[in-house]
Amino acid sequence: MRYIDINLLLTRIPAVVMNELKTQHQKLLDGDNQAKQEVIDGGSATWRKVKNNLEEISNRKCWYTESKNPGCLNDVDHFRPKAKNKNANGVVQYWYWFLAFDPENYRLSCQFSNRLNYNPIFELTGGKGNRFPLLHGQAHAITKAEIAIENPVLLDPCHPGDCDLLAFQPDGRPVVSPKQSRNPDNCYRVKASSLLLNLDYPTFNEDREALYNKIKELITDRGDTYEPGTPALEHVKQDLQKLMEEDSPYSKAAECYIRGFRDREWIEQLFF
Predict the structure, then answer these.
(1) Which end of the chain is more exposed for a tag (fewer CB within 10 A), N or C?
(2) What angle do CA 126, 129, 134 make, to 5 degrees?
(3) Is 67 inside any structural domain?
(4) Low-confidence ranges of the chain (pLDDT < 70)
């Protein structure tokens, strides 16, 4: 998960689309709960107009997993869900209706992260759906002003501190960063997000494991055999640097893996 500055999105949305979002939002403010639901149910045509702008920022990568899936459509995910979350008795626990047309709440998501589906690793239902738990049973916001004091469980790619909580095993599985391993809240957030965002889904793990093996081969089978300062070693360094670039799939995992070989001086030079 790589940090995305949501302000970049706000500067790229065409004025005509921003005006349409504002118009739809005003309808929410003016209507009762039934009217609000009707506006949201018919709102996808409006927020889908932002998808191209979301994709431009990340080179079409999912903001949660950093996967790039040319055979699948990306979703415009509402980080705080637009749908009502109800308990077993049908009582609404929270409903972020007031963020349905707020682009600050939009994230580009692959379908595995955004939609409910079975995760065979956990043997549970993964994906966000309309789930948005808060730490320590905190009450959910009922206005936009109140979201500033919320403490979400889910990791948010638009919060730089959240992106730093993740590390990755050589087999591709996400884990909490060693620097945060003694913080129980952060450990819990990483574990919960691994299921609720499907960060720990077999296909993503397989991709990251293949990335680790590629990096290991570049370093141990190629880079370590070249003398410092030679063109051949510089080419290897360039290949590794490319894997860590923002536009590359799983670039934060690549950075994590490459950092694991920093006992080599030529690897350390990539970061300093």
Answers:
(1) C
(2) 85
(3) yes
(4) none
Would you state the structure tokens that stand for residue 159, as one six-digit string?
């919060």
Asked if residue 88 belongs to a domain, the reply is: yes
Number of domains observed in the structure of the chain: 2
Question: Residue 238 belongs to what domain range?
Answer: 203-271
- Dump strand ranges (E) for 51-91: 75-78, 85-86
pLDDT of residue 272: 76
Q: Is the pTM of this model over 0.90?
A: yes
Gap between the Cα atoms of 69 and 38, Å rounded: 32
Helix, strand or coil, per DSSP, at residue 128: coil
**Per-residue model confidence (pLDDT) at position 188:** 98
Q: Look at residue 8 in the predicted model and tell me its pLDDT.
A: 94
Element (DSSP H or E) covering residue 230:
none
Please report whether residue 63 resides in a domain: yes
Q: Could you tell me the two tokens for 142?
A: 């009922």
Q: Where are the beta strands (DSSP E) in the chain?
A: 75-78, 85-86, 92-94, 106-109, 117-119, 124-126, 166-168, 174-176
Q: 87 near 23, Cβ under 8 Å?
A: no
Rounded to an integer, what distance in angstroms lies between the CA atom of residue 24 and that of residue 39? Answer: 7
SS3 content of the chain, % helix, strand, coil (to 5): 50, 10, 40
- How many residues are present in the chain? 272
Are the C-beta atoms of 103 and 7 separated by less than 8 Å? no
